[in-house]
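Assemble and predict.
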Amino acid sequence: MNPAASPRRDARRNHERLLAEARILFGERGIEAPLDELATRAGVGAGTVYRHFPNRDALVRELYDTAVGDLHGFAPEILGAESGWRSVELYLERLAAWVAESPYLPAVMRRVAELDPDYKPGAEFEDAINGLVARAQAEGALRADVTAVDLSVLVDMLGSVGQYGGAYLPYWRRQLTIVLDGLRARPGLTPLPGDGQAFDEFHDMSHQKGPRPAAD
Amino acid sequence: MNPAASPRRDARRNHERLLAEARILFGERGIEAPLDELATRAGVGAGTVYRHFPNRDALVRELYDTAVGDLHGFAPEILGAESGWRSVELYLERLAAWVAESPYLPAVMRRVAELDPDYKPGAEFEDAINGLVARAQAEGALRADVTAVDLSVLVDMLGSVGQYGGAYLPYWRRQLTIVLDGLRARPGLTPLPGDGQAFDEFHDMSHQKGPRPAAD
DNA sequence: TATGATTCGGAAGGTCGCCTCCGTTTCATC
DNA sequence: GATGAAACGGAGGCGACCTTCCGAATCATA
């Protein structure tokens, strides 16, 4: 077979269908959900799942890569905002909304980190986020003691409502508003305790590579 | 056997040991982790697990009940604070810390809600939390448009760092500080969008009983 | 529409974890 | 320390899920 040949139409359709159903199934039942169930939902046989993804990890990896692809789609709007502060708002809003709507993401990220600890395609965004924070702080709009990592953690926190089955998706922007009010530069802010983390630590954290609570 | 008789000492010890190891194991691998593994970690045979907990759900229920018991321990300090605002601070700090240190909790709560949808022992705290919010707002310290449910959601969000394997546990109080600064009453706050939720909705959300993202 | 290559479906074997069962051990009491 | 009751341990049957395999179906090309 020609390795560069484009796959047959039914193969491509099944591949996309499997990815889409996997996002839903893994979001509902976790990334250990039975692949037989995935086959049923996607309307294919079990064998077809394994032709497209040799094993569960290959499927998880591909979900991860498509998620990183999603991220690229957000960059123009967020970075092209008319002010640094507006970029901060968009960064929190757009990414938290995306995380909230992608409940399969946290588990997928953790699994990928277990498989390939040094695979960090998100690192390419670090400079952009740092620049966005610096711009908003230079405007005097964003409090001076927050770091880009702090904002990224807030995205994960706000997006964590996605773990709750979608019931809270219409409401979480109230918390976003509170957070944004807490990020505005103004007199009398409480200084943030401790030092901000480095991006590497943030990656390890959000992919759960750090120390476990108290394993044996 | 006498139903009120206190169990033998070895039985009580194994029971506690199993609960403790289950919290760790479920926190690391989810509540579907193999019970054989639990037996091994607790240093008992598989049969002993099933004598203490007829099935996995019984174990999950007991973990839930001990967690609700934990909650009672927090009430005196939080409600007895010298001001309403200080109560708000303590509420967010103590409970978020507890959630963050209990990564098994979210999954346990969801499972219990599936098993007993009307079992809501936490409802007894509603009045206390509402009172705490009212007091802080009457002081003019807490922004007027937040509800007790908003604060409870923030607790879950801040505590969600517990899902990340403990790597972020030393750092999340930076985000707590930002949130508290956003909760302070002051001129120029952005009004919170939409209406606050009722406690019933919050229960259903945090136990993931609401609608799922897009199940078939 | 004929042909060959590609993809599909689902049966079936293997593995892993659930849970039971009962001979053995530990505990409480005398 | 002797005795009965309670609890323990782990082997093993059972079922669910993973994964492979190959005849059948579908697609692309002429």
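Residues 8-11, 34-37, 46-47, 49-50, 54-56 of chain B lie near DNA strand C (CB under 10 Å from a C1').
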